[in-house]
Write a structure and sequence with these properties.
The longest helix is centred in the last third of the chain and has 35 residues. By secondary structure, the protein is an alpha/beta fold. It has a domain of 216 residues: 3-Layer(aba) Sandwich (Rossmann fold), CATH 3.40.50.300. Strands 3-2-4-1-5-6 form a six-stranded parallel β-sheet, with helices on both faces. The relative contact order is 0.16. The protein is built from 13 helices and six strands. It is globular, with a radius of gyration of 21 Å. It binds adenosine-5'-triphosphate (ATP).
């Protein structure tokens, strides 16, 4: 389970190995800038919501590479609070792998929202620290706008590269400022949608409703509701449910109907989010030309939905091919 290149010190560039990662090679024929980029190796896991990115990142980090650290790239999960509603990976599933930019920021009204530009600089600083420890940074999360902001060699905050415009091909940045290994966990959308609908029910069983009730009952809720969490799926959908019933008595039936309406809206919006995210991933592949290695995790999800044992399929169809891709990348 050791990092494959630990003992191959002859391959390492001495001037880099003091500061940079151990897997940095001699780059005598490349330019200085390209050489630097080449030494900054990071793994980036892409995928729509619910596709298993967090699990895969921990699987890669904990079972195969002893020295990896995970950095969150979900724009809602950077804030603390609403852990169930926003699907933060629970502590016990993190397997002692360090997680960064996960629930680190207070969603306060007094701070402006955490922007893609903020992510670009915070994440770059985190990556530098991880690389200086000679560990592998693994970026995992669903916000492709954050991933683009982080990686684009030249990033312009005012250009929305995910807008529906045809001229995007000429402005989207094709060069990345790190040496990236992109792993894209893909699940066929109809299957993913079925899973997402079930996941909302599971989240409600795990306390999502109570978490939202606390959020709306918070005396500071006005300031909280202005914060970065205000757009988290669950908040707008349940706002009507909680606010409508605040000051008046309602019948059991009205209550139940409003609840069901909110749950349905959460399910619909989660499925729409997955579809939008998939569109953004395809844009990174097709318009930016980033070399995304696609891993098809559909079979694991089909098994899960059928109530079958899923661990072996996940291992064989998702973890093993991902490990192969990352190993090859680290040895390049
Ligand atoms: P956009 O340009 O649509 O904001 P993006 O790539 O910046 O896209 P996404 O991660 O796709 O960001 O999130 C878009 C929206 O999806 C968020 O504003 C929020 O409503 C919802 N969302 C994303 N992640 C979560 C999450 N973890 N929990 C709840 N809602 C989320």
């Amino acid at each position: 389970h050791h990092f494959p290149y630990k003992n191959h010190s002859t391959l390492l560039c001495p001037s880099v190995s003091k500061k940079g990662p151990r897997w940095a090679h001699m780059t005598t024929t490349t330019t200085a800038a390209a050489g630097t980029r080449r030494n900054k190796k990071i793994v980036v896991i892409l995928g729509a919501t619910g596709s298993g990115k967090s699990k895969l990142s921990v699987d890669l980090a904990s079972r195969f590479f002893t020295s990896s650290e995970i950095i969150n790239s979900d724009k809602i999960q950077v804030y603390n609070g609403l852990d169930i509603t926003t699907n933060k990976i629970p502590l016990h599933e993190r397997e002692n792998v360090p997680h960064h930019l996960l629930g680190e920021f207070h969603p306060s009204n007094s701070h402006p929202d955490f922007t893609p530009s903020d992510y670009r600089s915070h994440c770059a600083a985190t990556i530098s620290k991880i690389l200086s420890r000679q560990h592998i940074p693994i970026i995992a999360g669903g916000s492709n706008s954050f991933i683009y902001a982080l990686l684009a060699e030249k990033f312009s905050p005012e250009i929305d590269v995910f807008s529906e415009s045809d001229s995007i091909n000429s402005v989207i940045c094709k060069q990345v400022r790190y040496n990236c290994c992109f792993v894209w966990v893909d699940v066929s959308l109809p299957v993913l949608n079925q899973y997402l609908v079930k996941r909302v029910d599971d989240m409600l069983d795990s306390g999502m409703f109570e978490e939202l009730a606390d959020y709306f009952n918070d005396p500071d809720s006005d300031s909280v509701s202005q914060s970065g969490l205000k757009n988290a799926i669950g908040i707008p959908e349940f706002a009507r449910y909680f606010n409508r019933f605040k000051n008046k008595a309602v019948t059991e039936l009205e209550n139940r109907l409003a609840y069901e309406e909110a749950v349905k809206a959460v399910k619909d919006n989660t499925c729409q989010l997955a579809k939008r995210q998939l569109g953004k991933i395809l844009r990174l592949r097709d318009a930016a030309g980033w070399d995304l290695k696609r891993i098809d995790a559909t079979a694991a999800f089909t098994a899960k939905l059928a109530g079958k044992r899923v661990e072996d399929i996940w291992e064989r169809e998702v973890v093993e091919p991902s490990v192969k891709i990352v190993k090859r990348f680290l040895m390049e």
